[in-house]
């Protein structure tokens, strides 16, 4: 899994690619934790290139949300594909992790 990162000033955008699953979720979670610890607690996760998410991937996003909130920020998701959207809806996590249409929209008003 690739994990691109872009510093947008008021937030950091992370863009994983491929599957967000048991193998890749720890890397995403660790990077979000590292950002939160280092004062970059506003994170947008761009899921546009993620074609599959499982419970481990969801767990990484929820853990990231908790870590960023505890550090005074938050975590938002953007560009969510059909499979990811279906999993979020099925688990009711779309109420906690509200998908935004674009990274820029997710990063506004922070």
UniProtKB/TrEMBL annotation:
Stretches assigned to the STAS domain: 18-110
GO molecular function: anti-sigma factor antagonist activity
Database matches in InterPro entries: Anti-sigma_ant, STAS_dom, STAS_dom_sf
UniProt-listed Pfam families: STAS
Family: Belongs to the anti-sigma-factor antagonist family.
Protein name: Anti-sigma factor antagonist
